[in-house]
Design goal:
Layout: H1 21-42, H2 50-58, H3 60-72, H4 83-100, H5 106-128, H6 140-165, H7 172-175, H8 177-201, H9 207-211, H10 220-231, H11 243-250, H12 254-262, H13 270-286, H14 296-302, H15 308-319, H16 323-329
Helix pairs in contact: 1-2, 1-3, 1-8, 2-4, 3-5, 4-5, 5-6, 6-8, 11-12
């Protein structure tokens, strides 16, 4: 997956005053998972706090859904967006009531069943959340990221719920249910952290903001200039190339250069365009017998990448294989 940001586009900078909801939900999910682990492992040592810790741990399913949902939805805030957290809070309250009060009467048994059903539904919705608008994603790396996230989440869920809870009494899986669930909870938190880091590097575009953009008239002269600079002048080989550099060379404002790149030239952003040229040049060099002696790092640097890591990720996102695999396959 290409780890690419847009250093030359000022409008892409995040608002420092805006709180990322993914961080908040992720922190809540982490705290709930920690409470679940503490209650599972140290219940006998928690004393009076065991009920409070258990209630916090019971919210793990809900917070995992909200955290996952926040990674794959980027609508502008609205009143309608409060219903998911309201649903999670209702399940938390129902779980708290049934945990503190013996479910002897019919109403409490119904409430307990509803709380369990709600938690299970939220687990399934967390698996489905990345896949809901998969067909609308034009970026291959984004589609792979969504499928990978959903697949790993489903695998953790299958181990923790189906394999362990569904195991016969007295079986090895049943006896190891607590440590297995704790490991699954830790793996889920760690996996979410990795996914959050990826999303920070590859933020989603707000669909409303995208729809509100006004169409820009094409400028054939600017298009030709940009293509010439990239193809004939090999400007992509400059590792610190920015939109401002293209604006200076073409004599046009930065916003017009950006609009031309994302409009007439059809690239998602400036860095996708530059890396596209870099990857094409890298592929040419990797299959050139005269350059077979060159290390992959040298080719990456010569093509404009600042280090081997971003090059490998961008190359694999484009070709589905690493540079080394690509070179070996074409020999």
């Amino acid at each position: 997956m290409a780890s690419i940001l847009q250093p030359g586009i000022r409008s892409q900078r995040p608002d420092p005053m805006r709180i990322d909801i993914s961080l908040l939900y992720g922190a809540a999910f982490c705290c709930a998972s920690l409470a679940f682990c503490l209650k599972s492992v140290l219940a006998s040592r928690l004393g009076m706090a065991v009920d409070a810790v258990a209630i916090l741990g019971n919210a793990t399913c809900g917070w995992s859904w909200l955290a996952t949902r926040s990674l794959f939805r980027r609508e502008s805030p609205s009143r309608g967006d409060w219903w998911p957290i309201a649903a999670v809070l209702m399940v938390m309250i129902a779980s708290a009531v049934t945990s503190l009060v013996p479910a002897d009467g019919m109403p409490l048994r119904i409430l307990d069943n509803l709380a369990r059903l709600g938690s299970s539904a939220m687990l399934l919705m967390a698996v489905a959340a990345p896949l809901l608008d998969l067909r609308e994603q034009s970026d291959k790396s984004e589609r792979r990221f969504r499928i990978l996230y959903s697949g790993i989440y489903a695998a953790i869920l299958a181990v923790a719920v189906l394999a362990v809870d569904g195991a016969p009494d007295g079986s090895t899986a049943s006896q190891l249910s607590i440590p297995v669930k704790v490991v699954c909870a830790i793996a889920a938190v760690f996996g979410y952290g990795l996914a959050l880091g990826h999303r920070k590097r590859h933020p989603l575009v707000d669909p409303k903001a995208r729809a509100s953009r006004k169409p820009v008239a094409s400028d054939p002269r600017l298009e030709a200039q940009l293509i010439t600079l990239m193809r004939e002048n090999s400007l992509y080989a400059e590792a610190d190339l920015r939109v401002a550099d293209l604006a200076r060379l073409t004599g046009e404002p930065e916003y017009k250069v950006t609009q031309c790149i994302t409009g007439a030239l059809g690239y998602p952003n400036f860095n996708q365009m530059v890396n596209g040229y870099r990857i094409e040049e890298a592929k040419r060099r990797l299959v050139d017998p005269a350059l077979a002696h060159l290390p992959i790092l040298t080719i990456a640097l010569d093509c404009g990448f600042g280090s081997i890591g971003p090059f490998n990720r961008a190359f694999k996102a484009d070709t589905g294989m690493t540079p080394q695999e690509y070179r070996r396959q074409t020999r």
